[in-house]
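Q: Sequence in, structure out?
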Amino acid sequence: MSSGHIITQRRKCMGLTQEKLAEQINVSRQTIAMWETSKQFPSDSVAIIAARFLDIPEEELFEQLRWDRLHQRVNQLEKQYDATITVKPAKEGQQMMGLLKNATQTIDDVTITVTRIYKSIYWVDPIHGKTHGIYVTGPYDIRMYHTDKKLIVHLLRENRNPRMNLTFSRIYAEDNLGNHFNSGGSGGAEDESVGEYAYRFAAHFEYPSPQASSFILHYDVVNGHEDECDALLFEDVPIDGEGITRTFNDDVITYNGVHWHKRENLPDSCQIHLVHNMAREVRHVGLAAITDNLGNQYGSTGGGSWGNNKDVFFENFKKAIDPKATSISFKYLFARKIFTFELRDLPLPS
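A: Exactly. Output:
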């Protein structure tokens, strides 16, 4: 039953016309008609109002709306790529979890646990944690939606030492045939339900050889707590500066100025552009103590790199730099220690 059918059914049970319902939730009658025929879907904020007035459980309506929106997107992709796409819930992988061996390792109060392994599932609802699969057949390869191309690993990282501010360094895998494959990306969020310093995330890889049956996961983190790091100081460097270098143990960091960077959630934020010519193990943590010459302080929201050149990267500010400022100072942090985890004999899903 679609979200439109749920709304229609409840409206009729309450003896309401489309006009009366529209008046009660402050939308037009045409909008109600579009909802009920699934030509348009209510926003989350309006859906809450409608659910409460119609006495529909909010989670029931939201769950159906998520599916309706996904099916709408799938229909658009089918037309765009002339492909057939089937959408179905992803299996929760309980049998796979029973096969996990050596899926937990602890080093210096830090524990890494593999909680789930699966493949070819791409659409994840980050708010409610529900995962859905999009499987594609047809004459065209729809990259992100193509089946049997990715291996996804869910992990839980637990840290019981408040003096450890853990930062991702590197993650890669090796199958039992000796093939190496790097992570194509990862992301996650804190999980206070597990612990104050617990962090859940997922990493995806190119799927290994079909002949492989298991793999080893290598995961490196560094302690980014400022007191546990070596600092390279950039002091009073011009905001529009370029080619300013500092050296630490043969690692050369080049500062290339502050640049405006408009983003949807931070429309007036800025970035520090840097080049890291790495000579040693990667112990990069990030930036700290960012201030301008007027005394303003700026926090970092993390950063990234450009294209395939991982040496060229940036750090984002939490707010725009003061237009009256002419120079900036900050610390570039190097962790003193890398924690290397090796989780062995992890089963590959068939």
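The radius of gyration is 25 Å.
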